[in-house]
Amino acid sequence: MKVAVIGAGSWGTALAHLLGVTGSEVRIWARKEEVVRGINEQHRNVRYLSSQELSHNITAYGTFAECVDGAEAVAVVTPSKIMRSVARELAGLVAQDTPVVLCCKGVEEGTGLLPVEVFAEEMGNQSRFAVLAGPNHAEEVISCVPSATVIASESPETAELFQNLFVTPSFRTYTSSDVVGVEVCSACKNVIAIAVGISYGIGLGDNTGAFLMTRGQAEMSRLVYALGGDPMTCMGLAGTGDLIATCMSHHSRNRCFGEFLAEGRTLDEYIEMTHMVVEGSLACKTLLPLAERHGVDLPIAQAVRAVVWEKGDIGVFTETLLGRPLREEFYGLE
Predict the structure, then answer these.
(1) CB atoms inside a 10 Å sphere around CB 65
(2) Is pLDDT above 90 for 331?
(3) Other CB atoms closer than 10 Å to residue 170's CB: what's the count?
(4) What b/e readout covers 187-220, taking b as 16+ CB neighbours within 10 angstroms?
(5) 42: how many CB neighbours lie within 10 A of its CB?
(6) Catalytic positions
């Protein structure tokens, strides 16, 4: 197939390479001219995963119009903060029946909408959208380290199309109909990873990390349930799987950002140093209004927001969480 990939960061580059090695004709959009030139002339992304030679089936473009021209499917791999502007521009370029898979992870600030809701508002025909998530560090996927992902869509046909499109001998794909569950898990796990990074950064141990991950999974389960998703999704690749990878791996920018915060440094400093987006830094702010609207308690997200956006004292991070009233372990699911 002719497939357009919108976004040439590390994950977009890895997915484009996967598509290319399985025989698809891949067109990738990159914001920077140096990236376009590097991919087309050297078969390398000079900014991300630069040591990896990319499939020769990939051609890079600097405009959306060139990238999606003739595309039979589209993968959107851009930061969540620009997803509406991307959707709005693609609306005039992509046919109503072209299948689109979203790899954005977050909640829109202000509206509380999930990525698939934003794109459906702007582009129409929600059934042609799918979402992709799982324990998928780009550095390992592009190196053919065995990995798996889940692709969710309200349309079984759309989910199966992308399942077959992305599968490789080292990249296993599963389908789901729970779009809400997959998207909520994708947003929540980044916030929990920041919390875990903070805990290790201030010298706490594996017990604390496991505690934060487990209670974080409870938070995402409550929100998934309140929004009409299936809490069982939180036990799968988009939930437990992605949570483990994002919280425990040093490939994880959210985990590393948490450790960075523990040193008394800021989000702006991290972005300036790495040139990377930290999705959990925005999600800890955008998830809370959505949770409050549905009466869901997200104490870990609240603690992370206090540190990232309200200049909260790292020293009281654990005190805030440990000082909460005692509860039953599983609440908010009935």
Answers:
(1) 12
(2) no
(3) 15
(4) bbbbbbbbbbbbbbbbebeeebbebbbebbbbbb
(5) 12
(6) 189
Least confident of 69-78, 155-164, 299-308, 310-319: 310-319
* pLDDT of 13 strictly over 80: yes
Q: Write out pLDDT tens, residues 148-185.
A: 999 999 999 999 999 999 999 999 999 999 999 999 99
Report the distance separating Cα 147 and Cα 141, nearest Å: 7
**Residue 177: phi, psi to the nearest 5?**
-100, -5
> Exposed/middle/buried for 44, CB within 10 Å: 0-12, 13-18, 19+?
middle
Model confidence, pTM: 0.93
Strands ordered across the beta sheet of 58-61? 58-61, 25-29, 2-6, 73-76, 100-102, 129-133, 147-152, 171-176
Contacts with 291 (C-beta within 8 Å, 6 or more apart), sequence order? 223, 226, 297, 298, 301
- Please compute, for residue 151, the number of CA atoms within 13 A of its CA located in the half-sphere on the CB side: 27
Closest by CA to 11, choosing from 129, 197, 166, 163, is 166
| Neighbour-count burial of 20, counting CB atoms closer than 10 A to its CB (0-12 exposed, 13-18 middle, 19+ buried) | buried
Structure tokens at 324: 């909460």
**Sequence-separated (6 or more) residues with CB below 8 Å from residue 65:** 93
* Amino acid found at 101: V
Q: Is residue 249 classed exposed, middle or buried when 0-12, 13-18 and 19+ CB atoms within 10 A define those classes?
A: middle
